[in-house]
Specification:
The structure holds two protein chains of two kinds.
Chain A (H helix, E strand, L loop, with lengths): L1 E10 L2 E11 L4 E6 L5 H9 L6 E6 L2 E2 L5 H7 L3 E4 L11 H12 L4 H14 L16 H12 L6 E5 L7 H18 L2 E5 L3 H7 L2 E6 L2 E6 L1 H6 L3 H8 L1 H5 L5
Helix pairs in contact in A: 3-4, 3-5, 4-5, 6-7
Chain B lengths: L1 H12 L5 E4 L3 E4 L5 E9 L4 H6 L1 H7 L4 E11 L1 H15 L4 E4 L3 H9 L19 H36 L6 H12 L3 H24 L7 H39 L2 H7 L4 H40 L3 H11 L2 H28 L4 H32 L3
The chains are: A alpha/beta, B alpha/beta.
Chain lengths: 250, 394
């Protein structure tokens, strides 16, 4: 689904990734972890095209992103949704209007159909319908994330990018959000690319885990294999006290 | 699109005698007791507009309910599922709608979208259009009144803190005051000087042309002296500072409010008025009279230069005449207004900054309002001063 080969990103002389390879398979939930400053978010931004890589190719659905024309690029954006860390909802629009923005941008639908679609996306994200008329500033952090997830699902994407989906949520809210992501991935057949710090999310939700370090992907495998991988950071991360609490040891 | 046409043709080839209506995605067949609605093609978001526009015709053909057959649907996504539920809901208004032949692959999706979502507002409530002007006028009036009352209250609060810190010098924050003085005073000397110089020059230039008709062009110096020292110098300076520093105060404090920095300050036991408002107020009250003095000098210099070029009055002659006709009172009348204008600008700017709430939109709106309001208040205050000085005979 996503194929990254030889990616190199840099800010001036500071090289973030060098020769990074990564594959995301169709239908899986891939968790990307790494210490602070290893460039998890930079990788995400490079894949979704917000950041131009210095070298390397990025293919989504078999299309090379660098070779696309502007129009192809615009159309390809229908195939994937992005959930930003703080939701990035448009603050001057209501939640309902926020979900309708991508629909309005890409299609000329009737008003009542857009409304029904927005409301059903809201239900899928586990929000009550009266949230639709509220503004993002009236919502709690967890609800904002769910509303943003509803917006990223608006165009029925096959691929979903989530940047730290559970950061800033309480454990119960985070667990509920994990469950929601898993549920949606299963029922809609979504492929999910998930950048996270949250060990619980990794253990409960992800099919495979990619570990970022030393400017490339150290290992990209199911949890058990990653835990057995011989690298000081990986060992410390998956065998520390917090990992034990998350049940990674069992 | 051609793929759907093919399906449509296949569908129409097999069309039974009772077929009433069909398009690329829906075929309606007569039957008893209820009609048969066959769905085919790809029910995905790319075809949503076509499928949705076919709905009224299909629903009209199903007067006594229908059996909806999904077995021929190619691919389905959530948008398609919502559309199926919409069809069912619309048909159910006439009679029962039964869903049959759902493929196993589509079942999970239709389980997620279990029904057409009940109607709910996606936009905030609007009043009817004929009441809107009345409502807006009323709201604007009430808001203006409330806002003035709050601004006055805020001024009182600030003054209380200000006089309180006279007795408790430990509360005075000298470094921020000096920093603000540099930003609002020193760094605005360029623009204030340039505008004053040009206005002084233009006043002499235009005044001389008009007064020359009476042979009274020497009086242009009286006009410049009185006009610039009493009114224009200080008024222009105040308006530039309101636009330049008042808006900056609102934006700085407002973005701090949005990032909850002000709340953090309160929990650390720091009073936001002491930390944010007083340094700006004190700096502006000190700097605006200085800037006004500077604007007076530069404006007169601009006038003198123009008089030299246009009327051949040498700067030495200009100054001799100027000292004869312009009394020091005019200068004092101008400069005494500066601290009051400064207080109005700083208070309005900080007040609007602290009132920012919610989104980035609110920050922009508050900044605009702070500039408009402080310029308005400066001009109103100037008018009141003019009346006052006339009545005391200055």
């Amino acid at each position: 689904m996503v194929k990254v080969r030889g990616l190199k990103t840099a800010f001036g002389p500071h090289v973030v990734h060098d020769g990074l390879d990564l594959d995301v398979k169709r239908g899986e939930i891939l968790g990307v972890v790494g210490g602070s400053g290893t460039g998890k978010s930079v990788l995400l931004k490079a894949i979704i095209g917000l950041l131009k890589p210095e070298a390397g190719t990025i293919e989504i659905n078999g299309q090379d992103r660098a070779a696309m024309t502007d129009e192809e690029d615009r159309l390809s954006r229908r195939d994937w949704g992005v959930l930003f860390q703080d939701g990035a909802l448009f603050s001057s629009l209501t939640v309902g209007q926020n979900i309708q923005v991508p629909l309005r941008e890409h299609f000329h639908m009737s008003h009542s159909l857009m409304k029904d679609l927005a409301l059903s996306k809201l239900q899928m994200a586990g929000l009550s319908l009266d949230t639709a008329a509220k503004f993002p500033s009236d919502l709690s952090g967890g609800m904002r994330k769910r509303a943003a997830l509803a917006r990223s699902l608006a165009l029925d994407p096959d691929l979903l990018f989530l940047d730290e989906p559970t950061a800033g949520l309480d454990p119960i809210g985070a667990a509920a959000f994990d469950e929601l992501v898993q549920e949606l991935s299963r029922s809609l057949g979504l492929t999910v690319f998930l950048v996270t710090h949250d060990l619980d999310t990794l253990v409960r939700v992800c099919d495979r885990i990619a570990v970022l370090g030393d400017k490339k992907i150290l290992i990209n495998a199911p949890l058990k294999e990653v835990m057995a991988y011989d690298h000081p950071w990986v060992q410390e991360y998956f065998h520390g006290p917090r990992a034990r609490a998350a049940g990674a040891q069992d | 699109m051609c793929r759907f046409n093919r399906i449509y043709q296949e569908g129409s080839g097999k069309k039974v005698a009772g077929a009433l209506t069909d398009n690329g995605f829906v075929t309606v067949e007569n039957g008893s007791p209820s009609a048969m609605v066959r769905l085919h093609g790809d029910w995905t978001i790319d075809n949503a507009v076509d499928i949705d526009s076919a709905m009224p015709g299909v629903v009209a053909a199903c007067k006594a309910g229908a059996v909806v057959d999904c077995s021929a649907i190619g691919s389905l996504d959530t948008t398609g599922a919502v559309l199926i539920r919409r069809y069912c809901a619309a048909i159910e208004e006439a009679g029962a709608a039964v869903l049959t032949g759902v493929l196993a692959a589509h079942k999970t999706l239709l389980d997620v979208i279990t029904c057409c979502p009940p109607p709910a507002a996606t936009e905030p409530d609007h009043a009817p259009w004929y009441l809107l002007p009345l409502l807006q006028a009323g709201e604007a009036t009430m808001r203006a009144l409330r806002s003035s009352a709050r601004l006055l209250g805020f001024l009182g609060l600030v003054l209380m803190r200000l006089f309180g810190s006279l007795f408790d010098m430990g509360r005075v924050r000298l470094v921020p005051v000096i920093h603000q003085m540099e930003v609002v005073g020193l760094q605005s000397m360029g623009i204030v000087g340039l505008i004053s110089f040009l206005i002084g020059a233009v006043m002499v230039n235009q005044g001389a042309i008009q007064l020359a008709r009476f042979g009274a062009d020497i009086f242009v110096i009286d006009m410049l002296g009185i006009g610039h020292l009493r009114e224009l110098g200080i008024l222009l300076t105040a308006i530039i500072i309101a636009g330049r520093s008042g808006s900056a105060f609102t934006a700085q404090i407002g973005s701090m409010v949005l990032h909850e920095e002000v709340d953090a300050m309160k929990t650390l036991g720091m009073n936001p008025i002491d930390v944010l408002v007083l340094p700006r107020l004190v700096a502006l009250v000190v700097c605006l009279p200085l800037l006004a003095f500077y604007a007076d000098i530069v404006g007169i210099a601009g006038g003198a230069l123009m008089a030299w070029i246009q009327l051949d009055i040498t700067p030495a002659n200009f100054l001799t005449y100027f000292r004869e006709v312009i009394s020091i009172d005019h200068y004092w009348v101008g400069i005494i207004k500066a601290p009051f204008f400064a207080a109005v600008i700083a208070t309005t700017g900080c007040y609007h900054g602290l009132r920012v709430h919610g989104s980035a939109d609110a920050l922009g709106m508050r900044t605009t309002r702070s500039v408009v309001q402080s310029i308005f208040l400066v001009i109103v205050l100037d008018a009141l001063f003019a009346i006052f000085f006339t009545s005391v005979g200055l």
